[in-house]
């Protein structure tokens, strides 16, 4: 197909349109509870226990990634997506009916596990259906739709989570159940050379073991390993919006007036300032992912990744020099654009680099960058007990520049790889 077929959502494949709507609706509900889930467990179990518990989901995510990549490559994209949505449906139901915090924590873990199983198949389906030259546009559209929830969700969640938590969780359960049914009925399998026979001849247990060994082989690929390490370093910096930045803003930024007009003024305390920084971050994502994608479409991915790390790391580092509300908003714009510019090209590299027969596996393995980054990112919060804010922001900047170095090495290695392939053909 021509690229023009993907400039309008109405011309997309039906499976892509269903997924766009379903994932957008779920992400709205997701952002109504996710920003407050740490507080939920802190209030019940205490800071220390909750802090330790919140480092576990990324590790469980590794298992989900392996399972998701395995199923996407063995059973097909549709089957893996169905398993992921079904797990989420069951876990939301358990969360909704349970009053036991430890059971709710396990349900929360299960929700994340379902998402990591669903993710690789979802990404691989885009790569299956969309030609290479149009993938950035499609991935950017999905990113925009998902971030609509990141804008509206926290505002609604600040009310519903604390006043109608059970009803909110039941809404998530119903949405996931309906979406699972629609996936089963309406979405077709897209895996190249798909055969139902392979479903009956491969056991999941042996497949998991083989997948684990396969990940070892994938990560022995120096080009792909550089991609994972570069991405993980970038994620450590980018994730600070949800981690250390909240600690810094609430503890160090004083209440101040947003504006004064005649006798009218609007003042925000530190928590409200942070909340509006989150809203600004989400709004920028919704309105600028697609325009930025078009603006940078002539850039190669290497330069986009480097620009992203500089903007994100530099913007966050400069936060440590000011507590003025308008300066904080300006820096939020800078580091958010660092996050925005990389969003459409994250999966693009894997789509280009991965062999067609192993695309699902590579898509799954690529998510290790987020798992590793999210596991290491909370270290800034723990270190803040002993290190000054400027020390923490310097650590964040260090990881951003590590990402730049690794991406430069990645694309040098990638160019040599392309040259070898062209010579062999």
Quick one: how many beta strands? 2
Helical segment count: 19
Using only C-alpha atoms, the radius of gyration works out to 22 Å
* Basic shape: globular
CATH level-four homologous superfamily name of the largest domain = MFS general substrate transporter like domains
CATH names the topology of the largest domain as Growth Hormone, Chain: A
Span between termini: 25 Å
Proportion in helices: over 70%
Annotated CATH architecture of the largest domain: Up-down Bundle
Q: Name the average pLDDT.
A: 81
If you had to describe this structure to a student in words, what would you say it looks like?
By secondary structure, the protein is mostly helical. It is built from 19 helices and 2 strands. It has helices at residues 14-45, 47-53, 56-74, 77-97, 101-129, 135-163, 165-186, 197-201, 204-219, 222-238, 244-252, 270-295, 301-319, 325-342, 346-353, 359-366, 368-376, 379-383, 389-424; strands at residues 256-261, 264-268. A two-stranded antiparallel ribbon has the order 1-2. A hairpin with a 2-residue loop joins β1 (256-261) and β2 (264-268). α5 (101-129) packs across α16 (359-366).
Summarize the structure.
By secondary structure, the protein is mostly helical.
């Amino acid at each position: 197909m021509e690229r023009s077929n993907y400039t309008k959502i109405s011309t997309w494949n039906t499976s892509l349109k269903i997924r766009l709507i379903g994932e957008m609706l779920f992400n709205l509900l997701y952002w109504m509870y996710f920003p407050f889930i740490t507080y939920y467990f802190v209030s019940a179990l205490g800071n220390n226990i909750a802090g330790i518990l919140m480092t576990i989901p990324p590790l469980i995510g590794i298992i989900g990634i392996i399972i998701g990549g395995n199923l996407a490559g063995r059973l097909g994209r549709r089957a893996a997506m169905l398993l992921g949505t079904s797990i989420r449906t069951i876990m939301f139901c358990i969360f909704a009916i349970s009053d036991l915090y430890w059971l709710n924590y396990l349900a929360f873990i299960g929700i994340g596990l379902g998402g990591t199983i669903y993710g690789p198949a979802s990404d691989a389906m885009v790569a299956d259906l969309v030609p290479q030259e149009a993938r950035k546009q499609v991935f950017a559209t999905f990113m925009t739709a998902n971030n609509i929830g990141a804008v509206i969700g926290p505002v609604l969640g600040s009310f519903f989570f604390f006043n109608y938590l059970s009803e909110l969780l039941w809404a998530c359960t119903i949405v996931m159940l309906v979406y699972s049914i629609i996936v089963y009925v309406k979405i077709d399998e897209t895996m190249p050379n798909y055969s139902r026979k392979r479903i009956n001849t491969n056991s999941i247990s042996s497949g998991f073991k083989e997948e684990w060994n396969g990940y070892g082989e994938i990560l022995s690929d120096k080009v792909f390993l550089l991609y994972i390490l570069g991405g993980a370093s970038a994620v450590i910096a980018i994730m600070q919006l949800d981690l250390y930045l909240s600690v810094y803003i609430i503890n160090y930024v004083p209440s101040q007036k947003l504006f004064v007009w005649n006798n009218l003024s609007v003042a925000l305390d530190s928590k409200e300032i942070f909340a509006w920084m989150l809203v600004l971050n989400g709004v920028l994502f919704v309105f600028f992912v697609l325009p930025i994608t078009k603006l940078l479409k002539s850039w190669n991915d290497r330069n986009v990744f480097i620009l992203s790390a500089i903007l994100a790391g530099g913007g966050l580092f400069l936060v440590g020099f000011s507590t003025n509300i308008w300066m904080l908003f300006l820096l939020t714009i800078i580091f958010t654009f660092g996050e925005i510019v990389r969003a459409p090209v994250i999966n693009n590299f894997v789509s280009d680099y991965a062999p067609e027969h192993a695309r699902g596996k590579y898509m799954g393995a690529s998510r290790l960058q987020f798992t590793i980054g999210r596991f290491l990112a909370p270290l800034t919060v723990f270190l803040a007990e002993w290190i000054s804010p400027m020390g923490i922001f310097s650590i964040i900047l260090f990881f951003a520049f590590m990402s730049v170095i690794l991406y430069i090495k990645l694309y040098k290695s990638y160019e040599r790889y392309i040259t070898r392939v062209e010579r062999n053909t």
